[in-house]
Specification:
This protein is of the alpha/beta class. Helix content is 44%, strand content 28%. The chain has six helices and eight strands, in the order βααβααβαβββαββ. Strands 1, 4, 5, 6, 7 and 8 form a six-stranded mixed sheet that branches. A two-stranded parallel ribbon has the order 2-3. The longest helix has 23 residues.
Length: 200
C-alpha cells in the first residue's frame, strides 16, 4: 500500500482543528483565501523572486524592484480573496510593500542562499512527507518567512514542527532553524526573528 503523502501544513492543520483538516484535505472543499493571507503570499513571492536571482548573481535586487514585484503579485493575489468588512485593499497593499522593504533593507543583505523554494521529500513512520522550504542558506540554516498581524511573542510550536520536518527531510541530525516573521501592526511594521538549534 502506498503511503499517504503529508506535509507539515497538513499536520499543523489537523492538530489545530481536525474539522478544518477534514474539510480541506479529505472533503476537498474550496479553500477560501483571506485578504491578509493573499498579502502574505504576495510578500513571500516578491522576496522569493529576489533570492532566486541572488543564487545566480550573488547580489540582491534593488529594493524598488522587489517592491514592484510585490505590487504585481498583489494584483494577481486579490482576484480570488474573500474580503471582510473593514478591509481596505490599498491599506493592505501599502502594508505589504512596507514589509517587503523592511526585509530587503534589514535581512536580505545578510542572507547567502543555497536553496530557494526547494521541495524536500522523506519517509517517516510509513508516511511520505513532501514540503517546500522557503530558504536554506550557505551555513545550512533553514529559514521560514512568515507574515502576521500581531507580534508572535514566541517561537510557535507549529513552526518548530514545520522546520524540524524540513531538517529531517534534508537528512540532518541536528540543524539550525530560523523563523523570520514580518509583523503588520496598526501604525508600523516590524521584524521578529527566532532561532533554534534542533537535535542538541
Amino acid at each position: 500500500v502506498q503511503a499517504e503523502v503529508l506535509s507539515p501544513s497538513q499536520v499543523n492543520c489537523f492538530l489545530h482543528c481536525p474539522a478544518s483538516w477534514y474539510y480541506r484535505y479529505v472533503a476537498r472543499l474550496p479553500f477560501v483565501r483571506s485578504a491578509s493571507l493573499a498579502m502574505g503570499d504576495a510578500v513571500h513571492a516578491a522576496l522569493a523572486t529576489n533570492f532566486s536571482q541572488k543564487l545566480e548573481s550573488g547580489q540582491d535586487l534593488p529594493v524598488d524592484d522587489v517592491a514592484a514585484a510585490f505590487r504585481a503579485e498583489w494584483e494577481e493575489a486579490i482576484r480570488d480573496v474573500s474580503w471582510q468588512e473593514g478591509e481596505d485593499a490599498a491599506d493592505l497593499a501599502a502594508a505589504g510593500e512596507q514589509l517587503v522593504r523592511l526585509y530587503m533593507e534589514q535581512v536580505a543583505p545578510l542572507v547567502r542562499p543555497r536553496r530557494v523554494e526547494s521541495e524536500v521529500t522523506a519517509e517517516f513512520g510509513g508516511a511520505r512527507i513532501r514540503a517546500r522550504v522557503d530558504l536554506i542558506d550557505q551555513a545550512g540554516t533553514v529559514i521560514e518567512l512568515k507574515t502576521a498581524g500581531s507580534d508572535p511573542g514566541r517561537l510557535k510550536q507549529e513552526y518548530v514542527l514545520q522546520l524540524g520536518t524540513y531538517v529531517f527531510a534534508e537528512g540532518v541530525a541536528a540543524g539550525q532553524i530560523r523563523v523570520d516573521t514580518l509583523v503588520r501592526l496598526k501604525t508600523k511594521v516590524k521584524l521578529v526573528q527566532y532561532e533554534r538549534q534542533l537535535g542538541e
